[in-house]
């Protein structure tokens, strides 16, 4: 065929195509595409989220009238700005947490020196030192050695799924008692998924027999239990001690800020209340996972992939404990003893009395963490247990978030916003205190499902502190439920970073979290309602008037 002829024929078949771009529809389409591109750019760069904070602040400062209290109105606007940046992730968490450093002086809430001091006190020192110790434990694989030892102990021969769950969850809870629950979840999840990697991930779809398909389903259900167990046990263990979670640290800091004349909440006093509360929740967690995910056939299904010899083989690959590991454990154990014995009872004051009460929990935490940079590791000449290069992964975002929480608490009080808000809650004055405590826990527990537990605590505790004073009850009767409720974030991945870590493994869904988390949330509220007026009254002295 003549190529010229084929060219003209093909051209004649496409006579409807214009030679030049036409105006009209194409211009409208191009404009639409440009608008979509601009919108995508706004969303991708989070400009709308960034603008939401200043816009909300401007609207509150321009439209809200708090009876002439300009500073309180400004504080409310700044709170909206910072909180929107937190929940929308408009800027990194650490950057949003530093916003009070410039917003408070600009809006006349407090001076630059006053707000900066909130970012470093004894409580922050406690968190900073515990993070350094956690990095040392992770660097020397102490957490993995402990997990394998306890898991192999509880594995059973043949495999007993409830006992194995008890070992995994118990190990996670114990570690989370002494380091922040988020690093604990990050450290323990690879240990848990390392066990789960022995199991077929999608065996049910490829199984040929009904028996094999049933075994695969049992294995998958148990995998859900392991991941949920690590996530929830980490949160529960953090509730037991001050160092386990930022919520407890925020509670201690705000209690000292609002009521400086009152005895502080110490490591030992909180553990006296938090540990029984955590044990009740742990038993509920174990029972819930066993009922939902373990059946009489689960052990037989797991036996094909897991036994005690596998775990012992992994443990043998780690080798014997080195000098460095022993030294880190010795420093960590010494710190726990110092935490527990600084203040004991009125008759036995503890070693803190030797320093006339000038030494805090943060003091000894930094002191013991400093030893890690002095004690040799025993590996190479001049090498210490820790160096600053190993501390590059310090969670400065959490430290700055705590500082922002303390700054906001100071701002609430200095601006008079707490007085105004407490006046609006005066209708609760006649309500019985025992009824208000669980309501405060439920209120805080509902908010914490949609934002971080630390941010929830920062928002809720100042209100509860003023509410306690306005209705004539001990503030801790409301502040403790608010803090505990903020830690009951069991239903959604957005509730805490630990939930995100578990959800990202792909083993669990939101439905799984809701089904397993709702019973825990109910048990948590019920346990708090019983323990706070009884045990809490003795531990915190809530039977005394302020």
TrEMBL record:
**Stretch forming the signal peptide:** none
Q: How does it sit in the membrane?
A: Multi-pass membrane protein
Segments spanning the bilayer are 47-64, 93-111, 123-142, 162-179, 226-253, 273-294, 315-339, 359-375, 396-415, 427-447, 522-542
Cite a GO CC annotation: plasma membrane
Q: What molecular function terms (GO) are annotated for this protein?
A: malate transmembrane transporter activity
* Parts forming coiled coils: none
Principal location: membrane
Q: Where, per UniProt, does this protein localize?
A: Membrane
Listed InterPro entries: SLC13A/DASS
What Pfam families does the record point to?
Na_sulph_symp
Entry keywords, A to Z:
Membrane, Transmembrane, Transmembrane helix
Name-wise, this protein is Citrate transporter-like domain-containing protein
Name the source organism. Answer: Oryza punctata (Red rice)
